[in-house]
Amino acid sequence: MKDQTKDLSPEQSLALISGMIHQAQGNVSYNTKYILLWGWCITLANFAMYGLMKFTDYNYPYVVWLLTIPATVITIIMAARESKEVSTQTHFDKITVWLWISLFFIIASVIAFGYKLNFQINPLILLFTAFPTFITGIILRFKPLMIGGICFWAFSILCFLVDMQTQPLIGGLATVAGYLIPGYMLKNLKA
Question: N or C: which terminus of the chain has fewer CB atoms within 10 Å of its end residue's CB?
Answer without folding.
Answer: N
